[in-house]
## 1
Amino acid sequence: MLAALAMAATAASLIGEPGCQTRCGDVDIPYPFGIVTSNGGVNCSLPGFEISCARTGNGSAVAPVLAGTDIAVLNLSVMPRPQARVLLPVAWQCFNSTGDSTGKSYGTVRFNADGVYRISDTHNELFVLGCNTLMYTNSGPPGRYKYTFYTGCMTFCNDSGSAQDGKCAGVGCCHVDIPPGLTDNWMQFGSTSTWSHADQEFSPCDYGFIVERGYYSFKASDLTTMPVNQTMPLRLDWAIRSGGNSSSTSMSCAAAAKKNKPQYACVSDHSECVNSSNGPGYFCNCTQGYEGNPYIVNGCTNINECARPTEYPCHGVCRDTEGSYECKCRAGYQNDGNPKEQPCSPKFPLAAQLALGITLGISLLIVAILLTLMVIHKRRMNEYFRKNGGSALQKVESIKIFTKDELNKITKNNSEVLGQGGFGKVYKGTLEDSSMVAVKSSIEVNEERKEDFTNEVTIQSQMIHRNILKLVGCCLEVDVPMLVYEFAAKGSLQDVLHGDGTHSRLPIPLDLRLEIAIGSAEGLRYMHSFTNHTIRHGDVKPDNILIDDKWIPKISDFGLSKLLKVDNYIATMVIGCMSYIDPVFMKTGLLTQKSDVYSFGAVLLELITRKKIVYGKNSSLIIEFCRLYDKEGSGRAMFDEDIATEENIFILEQIGKLAIECLKDDVNDRPDMNEVAEQLVMLRRDMKYGKAQNKSPRQFEGIATSDSPRSFATDTTSSSAAISLPSATPSREFPDL
Ligand SMILES: *[C@@H]1O[C@H](CO)[C@@H](O)[C@H](O)[C@H]1NC(C)=O
Ligand SMILES: *[C@@H]1O[C@H](CO)[C@@H](O)[C@H](O)[C@H]1NC(C)=O
Ligand SMILES: *[C@@H]1O[C@H](CO)[C@@H](O)[C@H](O)[C@H]1NC(C)=O
Ligand SMILES: *[C@@H]1O[C@H](CO)[C@@H](O)[C@H](O)[C@H]1NC(C)=O
Ligand SMILES: *[C@@H]1O[C@H](CO)[C@@H](O)[C@H](O)[C@H]1NC(C)=O
Ligand SMILES: *[C@@H]1O[C@H](CO)[C@@H](O)[C@H](O)[C@H]1NC(C)=O
Ligand SMILES: *[C@@H]1O[C@H](CO)[C@@H](O)[C@H](O)[C@H]1NC(C)=O
Ligand SMILES: *[C@@H]1O[C@H](CO)[C@@H](O)[C@H](O)[C@H]1NC(C)=O
Ligand SMILES: *[C@@H]1O[C@H](CO)[C@@H](O)[C@H](O)[C@H]1NC(C)=O
């Protein structure tokens, strides 16, 4: 309760002197105004600003009046302008029909004994109502004439209908602005003789008054019905004229602060003196950033501007300071000017922020995804490497293990396809030493087959023979391992004999065919004798005999040979052309080296007949040749016509006979590859011997003249044949063998 009282006292002290009543009726009474007290002890006002709190009518209600008068006070303000709103009497004069005055009032009232008030020129205006009327007010100290100011206006009406509501421009009503410095309310009338009002029942009275701007608007009826002895509100400016004598001295700020220090009215800190703009004197104002009452000690208090954003705008973060306030843009916002005046804008526009954020986010995401993919890829490659037996193969010296990247570089990303292998496409590649290689998929490797695979690759890499396609290396970082072989430029024997569809079939001389047969046989023989003699090719056929650029045959695609140990594969994996397959193996399921011999027999038949294993309308080369041989004791009718010359016939017959041997049903009747190779080599020797006897090598090379005699001397008992070259020698050049 004490605190509440203290607060109330503080609040009261802000507008009035301590111990003084600061409110009367509905009106606050701020110092320098003060209510006149009857105890006489305390002066609650500065001189000239006394207010009486008077009873109105018969009740207990009170209202302020200027002390010593009955002028009602409506409002008193100190800040921002020193003003008092009061009711002052209207001046009037009335006439009877003969134009004689029946009564008047000049509105004179003594409200300004100390000269602190002056009528506000900016907030009031002067009205005159009447129909043949001049009214004016005069005020101020004597000058050129009796007063300093004379102001008023005249109004006239032609007849009773002249005056119009809302029109106050000299017909029934006139009004003028007033000058500053007016201190009195009284009105002067034009002389009744000059300004006759006879026969003017429509406007019996004249009225003159100063009134608050905008308060009064003219109504024509007021000319007849407006009561006399009434009041109008108007605003008074006031100023401090210093203690002492009102009429003699009027202090400016400079004078007040200098001479009358003890009586200087602006006593609050943060207050300042302002010269009155309306007449002499000064008033006080709180300095900028402060509000309250400058006429009392500590009356000016700091304004919390941040609490009043409409009066003190801030478009950023507001912080109150003593006498002022700070306004800064929020973090991340900026303002070229003053954030008190114009809104802050984001340093980065929202779109830019969004764009930046999204870009960053996406970049991070992409990086994350790429990293993950790389890790997954690397892990998978390592997995493949392990799965494909990489660690075992790394120990094998003769084989190079390529990384996936190296392989892609070698094959230029698989740009050149050589053909279709058993397990996928075969790509051409170039090693760093510019030697050509063929890269092909092997079979898929799983845990069961891993050991077989690594063994197989190991064995292949160790088989080094001019008639065996060399395994250069492998790549294990892929799902299905890739194998890198030396490159056979002329393709397979299948292509050479029967064409690969793109090239026309070219004649092939017998000795070249014999060389191919010998080479192939040597390759198989080497294979069969390799290590423990258990290695079989398993799929001997012209497709798997590759020819390099020097016409040297290379046995290839023996990937199955080792894996065939596993029973499961026999049925499923031995695919391809069934015709080359040993019928014994078909029956027993037992693959032996003699099965390779059988298949090689079929290849020999193809070499001498140049017929496919299945030719014509489903004729089997093996069956037809055996049948022919059984019938005629010779396969001559089926020999390739290109080479079936008398000179060659012996050799051809011998090869045919050897083929028949190889194709024997009983595996024990078949020669082994060793014998086959030896017999072929002997045939080559026979052929050269026979040739050396009969023909010059130049003729063999196809430069024989067309008229060379077709002579032949045959010794059927001899193993050698003397055969002359046919006149229609192929014109195609053949490589050196
Ligand atoms: C009050 O005012 C009267 C005259 O106006 C003066 O004589 C008197 O000293 C003043 N009293 C105080 C306390 O200022
Ligand atoms: C007292 O004033 C009230 C209005 O405020 C009025 O109605 C009443 O007649 C008055 N009484 C006397 C005796 O004047
Ligand atoms: C008195 O004046 C103040 C400031 O001019 C104003 O806020 C207030 O409403 C006024 N009161 C009346 C009753 O006119
Ligand atoms: C008007 O007033 C004058 C002077 O008081 C008087 O002599 C005159 O008779 C009056 N006229 C009328 C019509 O009442
Ligand atoms: C002025 O008044 C006379 C009579 O007094 C009338 O005849 C005339 O029409 C009026 N003129 C105007 C413009 O109203
Ligand atoms: C107007 O007021 C004066 C003085 O207060 C008084 O003598 C006069 O009778 C009043 N007139 C009217 C019409 O009330
Ligand atoms: C004010 O000055 C006038 C004359 O100038 C004098 O008559 C009056 O007594 C003075 N009043 C005071 C309070 O000094
Ligand atoms: C007030 O007026 C006086 C002279 O009339 C002048 O010297 C003084 O500087 C003015 N003070 C202010 C604050 O305007
Ligand atoms: C009084 O001070 C306030 C703020 O300091 C200012 O806005 C106002 O204009 C000042 N009044 C006068 C009359 O100088």
## 2
Amino acid sequence: MRKSGKIYFSLYQWLFLHMWYYVDTAKLPEDVCEKFLQFDQDEETEHFLQNCYDKADWFFTQIGHSLAKSVLSWFMTKTSVNGLLQRGSMFVFSDTQLKQLLNIEDNWRGENLLDLGAGDGMVTQFMAKYFDRVYTTEVSSTMQWRLKEKGYSILNIDEWDNGSLQYDLIGCLNLLDRCDQPMKILNSIHKSLTPGIGKAIIAVVLPFNPYVEQDSEDHLPTQKLSVNGKTFEEQATSFIKDVLEPTGFTVEHFTRLPYLCEGDLHKSFYVLHDVVFVIKPKENG
Ligand SMILES: C[S@@+](CC[C@H](N)C(=O)[O-])C[C@H]1O[C@@H](n2cnc3c(N)ncnc32)[C@H](O)[C@@H]1O
Ligand SMILES: *[C@@H]1O[C@H](CO)[C@@H](O)[C@H](O)[C@H]1NC(C)=O
């Protein structure tokens, strides 16, 4: 088990080292291309993956998890099951990649961070170390429980934008395709950032495929984002031109990163493909 894990690890590395981060910049309009940051697999990302393989080696733990999961799945959503079992940890960016995206140094400090749809807070942690106060939102109650455990304040999803707080950074990672009203969230982000310095970091899985897990019968969002095109390049461009810019944002940087999730009995890890934008309100918009 351990051995084959290691072999697959190097195969994956060899095959995907560049694929996971690759964007065909020749297919981007010039003004979009200028904002693209090229990343690569770094030590922290490798460490996360290695940890996934090590965990998969705990064969009996895995059987325990899978059994428990199939029993619990009868009456709980998948997100809640993963939260309860402390499985399904996510990885979006390393510390080094985050600093590059935000254009900050190690000793940079901000006041308020808000991470929307923070999940179990694993990705929040990467941002939290740079802020005095950390706020989060979550609809899943088991995830809220994990966030409380980590010491993060949880704000009501209808109250974080009521004007009583302003945020130097708002994280909105892998949420816009999983929530019912993504436009409402984008507009709220726009008005809740600290004037002059506030930025938001948005991650979206491409190909764009909205799916609402909680409180929805057909799992389709009430608000539809107009993301056009088929390829990663086309959809990333459309997200900028048809969603972010019309909402009054300018894009500082964007990149492509693997969205990694700790695996289960079948696989050591799962990978989706994120486009990650750093945006701020337009100067006079
Ligand atoms: C795919 S997870 C992303 C978790 C984490 N941000 C990450 O990047 O790994 C999406 C999360 O958003 C939560 N969610 C869905 N709609 C929400 C909303 N309107 N407000 C806050 N959280 C929401 C879900 O419960 C889920 O935990
Ligand atoms: C706004 O939300 C905050 C945090 O959830 C809450 O404490 C405060 O009372 C709310 N203010 C108003 C005016 O509703």
